[in-house]
Design brief:
With 205 residues, the chain is an alpha+beta fold. It has helices at 3-13, 32-99, 146-152, and strands spanning 105-106, 121-127, 136-137, 139-141, 161-170, 179-180, 183-184, 193-199. It is rod-shaped.
Length: 205
């Protein structure tokens, strides 16, 4: 045996066979003590999670109750405020009616039906508008649209509802055109009847 062969035999005799550790064994399972510990951890975590959900639900229910009570209190106040507002509106309307003797009529459109009742005053509840035919300035032909004439005369604003005083006057020989408060009236010649219109103000006592 030569020198190289001897060295090879010696080297092979020194090789140590190391068995696979259990950590590398895919079929290895934790011991019973570890399984028990893990099972207890899982049980505790589930218990903690259930307790947290219960406490969260109880806290949310408490807040919902508080908010409902708060909502009820605000709703009650709102209802009371609306009721007071309605009473104020009702009293203001009654006050207006009292200020004009309680005779407030609906808007007739034009005043031709009142022709001949010269110097008599009438009170109408009108909503102002800028669309409608108007003839004259300060004194209007009795076929002029009352709601538009009221805006032209400054008694009401466009879209405003209020009570106006209309005084019937005799027919004029001529009516002057003008532009006032966003309304342009037309001029006209002689006409059979006329009226004036003004705002009704409640006297403060």
């Amino acid at each position: 045996m030569n020198r190289n062969a001897v060295l090879l035999v010696v080297s092979l005799s020194l090789v140590v066979v190391v068995p696979f550790s259990r950590a590398d064994d895919p079929t290895a399972k934790p011991p019973e003590e570890a399984k028990k510990a893990l099972a207890e951890l899982d049980k505790d975590l589930k218990a903690l999670d259930a307790k947290a959900r219960k406490e969260k639900a109880e806290r949310m229910e408490k807040t919902v109750k508080q908010l409902q009570e708060l909502q009820d209190s605000y709703t009650k106040k709102l209802d009371e405020a609306v009721a007071i507002r309605d009473e104020i509106k009702r009293l203001k309307e009654e006050l207006l009616h009292l200020s004009v003797g309680g005779k407030v009529l609906d808007n007739p459109g034009s005043l031709t039906a009142y022709r001949g009742k010269n110097n008599e005053a009438f009170y109408f509840k009108v909503t102002g508008t800028i669309t409608g035919s108007v003839y004259g300035s300060e004194v209007y032909t009795d076929d002029s649209n009352l709601a538009t004439a009221a805006v032209h005369a400054g008694a009401l604003k466009d879209g405003e509802t209020g009570i106006v005083k209309v005084t019937i006057v005799e027919g004029q020989t001529t009516y002057t055109a003008s532009t006032e408060n966003g309304v342009t009236s037309s001029g006209y010649g002689q006409w059979h009847g006329s009226y004036t219109v003004e705002a009704v103000k409640v006297e403060k006592k």
